[in-house]
Write a structure and sequence with these properties.
Distance between the termini: 48 Å
Shape: globular
Number of strands: 5
Low-confidence stretches: 1-21
Structural class: alpha/beta
Radius of gyration: 17 Å
Mean pLDDT: 85
Helix content: 40-55%
């Protein structure tokens, strides 16, 4: 019964996230989760809601929607791809010479393929070669999540921000920081680090209503 309730909860949150017809242009995110009870799954839904609230405030022609794939048989190939990119972080550049994305990534009909990884890697957002979109891998850092759920929530929102065209800025207290200072995040209610004026301008330039 507990499993059935968890599945029903995921479906309810998914429906609340995806919206209805007549919405602005969709930015579709395919979420690959190892388990329906993964804490990061709910935080990913929260991050999507955060970006949709940003889009509404800025009156952007943008709506993030999501699909959820639980315990997919292609997950192992996604994990291998994530490990390949993560191990070469700092030395790997997109373009000629980068590892080919597996069909498990390129065949997904979405702007973002987001993997809730079981590996202890550094979370990242990576442009998918030879097609539009991003591959995002979110680290399996259970210790950090146990200490402060808001850190993990902001990591997910940060990586989704990259898929929207945002880049790192020099403000360590902002969402798109690089490097970041998360010591100011609270431990109670859901909290997101702020967007800078430059972040907002970039979003308006890219998705402003026409």
């Amino acid at each position: 019964m507990e499993k059935a309730r968890s599945v029903a909860l995921v479906l309810a949150v998914l429906l609340a996230t995806t919206g209805a017809g007549g919405e602005p242009a969709e930015h579709r995110i395919a979420i690959f989760s190892p388990d329906v009870n993964d804490l990061r799954l709910a935080m990913t839904f929260d991050a999507i809601k955060f970006w949709n609230s940003v889009a509404a405030r800025l009156e952007l022609d943008l709506r993030l929607v999501s699909d959820v794939i639980i315990a997919s048989p292609v997950t192992r190939r996604l994990e291998t791809y994530a490990r390949t990119i993560s191990q070469r972080a700092g030395r790997l550049r997109s373009g000629p010479g980068e590892p080919d994305a597996p069909e498990a990534v390129t065949a997904v009909d979405a702007d973002v393929v987001l993997l809730l990884s079981r590996q202890d890697l550094m979370s990242f957002a990576w442009p998918i070669p030879k097609r539009r979109g991003h591959f995002i891998a979110i680290e399996a850092d259970e210790l950090a999540m146990a200490q402060n759920l808001n850190i993990a929530r902001n990591i997910i929102a940060h990586e989704i921000g990259h898929s929207l065209g945002l880049v790192h800025n020099g403000d360590p207290t902002s969402l798109m920081c690089g490097p970041c200072r998360t010591s100011g995040l609270g431990h109670g209610e859901d909290e997101y680090m702020r967007l800078t004026d430059g972040d907002r301008r970039r979003l308006v330039e890219r998705y402003g209503s026409r």
